[in-house]
Amino acid sequence: MTEKPIIEFQHVSKTYQNGTIGLKDINLSIPQGQFLVVVGLSGAGKSTLMRTINRMHDISTGNIFVDGESIVHLEGKELRRLRRSIGMIFQNFNLVKRSSVQRNVLSGRVGYYSTWKSTLGLFSKEDKQKAIEALQRVGLGEKLYSRADELSGGQQQRVAIARAFMQDPKIVLADEPIASLDPLTTESVMDDLKRLNEEFHITVIVNLHSVSLARRFGDRIIGLRGGELVYDEPISKVTEKDLEAIYQPVSIVKKSEVQA
Amino acid sequence: MNIVPTRTFTQKYHVKTVVWLTLFILLVIGTAKMTGVDFIMFFANFGQFTALLQQMAKPDWQYTSLVVQPILETIQMALIGTTVGTLVAIPFSVLAARNIVKNKFLRGIIRFILNLVRTLPDLMLAALFVAIVGIGPVAGVFTLAIFSFGMISKLFYEAIETIDEGPLEALQAAGANKIQMVVFAVIPQVFNYFVSYFLYTFEINVRASTVLGYLGAGGIGVYLQRSLDQFAYGQTAIIILGILMVVLIIDGVSNTLRERLL
Ligand SMILES: Nc1ncnc2c1ncn2[C@@H]1O[C@H](COP(=O)(O)OP(=O)(O)OP(=O)(O)O)[C@@H](O)[C@H]1O
Ligand SMILES: [Mg+2]
After folding, report:
1. Residue B190 CA to ligand 1 centre (angstroms)
2. Which residue among A13, A159, B44, B185 is the one 20 to 30 A from B166 at the CA level?
3. Does the keyword DNA-binding apply (chain A) (predicted)?
4. For position A256, what pLDDT does the model report?
């Protein structure tokens, strides 16, 4: 089951400029094709962890490898190439609401185009076809020409998944992708992510607040608390009790640590 | 636990609002005194104004055919000037927007240039260009282009600063470069504002170019000046009616466009 790691964290720490600790000495190895769920209280560092992988955040110390290559010093074109290979899904979908669904989906592809070609909207026939297929994959083929803000929240999130798919990603990072959705749409969005994982062997990392979803969809669950990796188990070994412990407020844990 | 806090004295009696309002009123009165704005004289001499109005109430309709050409020239001047100014303003406004250019220094320089341009009075610009390129509409076009540039770039960068930054983040995360981010995530969000600011500036320019004509910068302004010099208020009336029509048309067009786009 475990192949070569596609992502590797080595003693990664991140302190924000205002002194807040985001991550603290994280060591983590994520094999290619894994569906990894990250859990933890609000402020535990889940988003921070995720954003260090595509360098939307820089780290303070340590090293991160993606596909065997250290990414912490990438710049310019190299950095854009890394980002192009990593899809990202956001809690607020982050679609351009005034643009068509088609243009939103195609915008996932701009990393493969020169500035002037993308500026003039000169996408290839294959990519336009690919955009249609990506939309059909999430069940929204008929919305191709709709404006993004005409869609429901769940539909917008699935368009965002189609956009990420256009990148031909090796990795998809989803930061609380279902936090603003109802239970039913949650289901279909999680299914879409799972299918990317199973059919295309894409490594998927998802931040979730729902313990039951984490257990249903994940291959492995890691827990963060106060920027530290406090839990890391394959799904078969995860127990209800473990998860409860992760969700304990930091203050209580701190106190018990002091007493011990 | 859940008790509504009591307001402080300052909050309760809106002290800040009262202080600012008082200051503002004092400022208005003070400046009126200093600049010698004399309301009494204004009303005392009101008679002259009504006499002029009476004469203008008899438009010289025969004059109409003569003003069509210069009015068209004015519109052309305003259109070219506004367009050129807008095209130059677009890159500048992007570079001046806080959420696009994080480099304070670069942004500062750009904003300084923009402030400088806006400070130049358009009448001075017109006089300058008349001196350089000679009397005629070309001087007017240059003046209006620079005036539009200053005004539009400010309106544009303020519009850019109000956009939803989520899509910018998404594009960046997908490996887009800065220009691609602007084209895909910024322009679609501000395009409507751009169109309506363009039309707004165009309308201002049509009116401004009538004044510029006084300095020999072409268009209907030259005729306006002549009619006033010759006390031919019937002709003045025709010119004003013409300008009014143009402004109304532009306003109508811009309203329809805005409704369609929003
Ligand atoms: N840009 C920033 N500047 C300073 N501190 C930050 C910044 N972003 C996050 N933090 C802080 O870093 C810590 C980790 O934040 P992070 O967003 O990673 O948490 P999270 O686990 O994703 O929480 P949530 O579940 O609320 O999204 C928090 O204490 C947060 O306040
Ligand atoms: Mg978060």
Report:
1. 30
2. A13
3. no
4. 45
CA of A210 to the centre of ligand 2 (A): 14
Superfamily of domain A1-85+175-181+205-260: P-loop containing nucleotide triphosphate hydrolases (3.40.50.300)
Q: What is the CATH number of the domain that holds B153?
A: 1.10.3720.10
Please give, rounded to a whole number of angstroms, the shortest distance from the CA of B160 to a CA of chain A.
Answer: 14
pLDDT at A1 over 70: no
Residue at token pair 């799972």: A194
Parse chain A into domains and list their residue ranges.
Answer: 1-85+175-181+205-260
pLDDT by residue (tens digit) across A27-53? Answer: 999 999 999 999 988 888 999 999 999
Domain contains B22: no
Q: In this predicted structure, what is the pLDDT of residue B63? A: 76
**Residue B36: pLDDT above 80?**
no
| Cβ atoms of residues A179 and A161 within 8 Å | no
Does any domain span residue B48?
no
Contacts of B235 (CB under 8 A, 6+ apart): B60, B63, B223, B227
Distance CA A157, CA A150 (A): 13
Burial (CB count <10 Å: 0-12, 13-18, 19+), residue A191: middle
Confirm whether B118 is domain-assigned. Answer: yes
Q: According to the model, what pLDDT value does residue A255 have?
A: 45
**Residue B5, pLDDT above cutoff 90:** no
Q: Is A46 in the pocket of ligand 1 (CB under 6 A)?
A: yes
Number of domains in chain B: 1
Burial class (CB in 10 A: 0-12, 13-18, 19+), A119: middle
| Full residue range of the structural domain in which residue B170 is found | 71-261
The verdict on the CB of residue A52 being under 6 Å from ligand 1 is no
B187 touching chain A per CB within 8 A = no
Token digits for B228? 């006033």
**Distance separating alpha carbons of residues B127 and B214, to the nearest angstrom:** 10
Q: Which ligand sits nearest to residue A46's alpha carbon?
A: 1
Classify residue B2: in a domain, yes or no: no
Q: What is the mean pLDDT of chain A?
A: 87
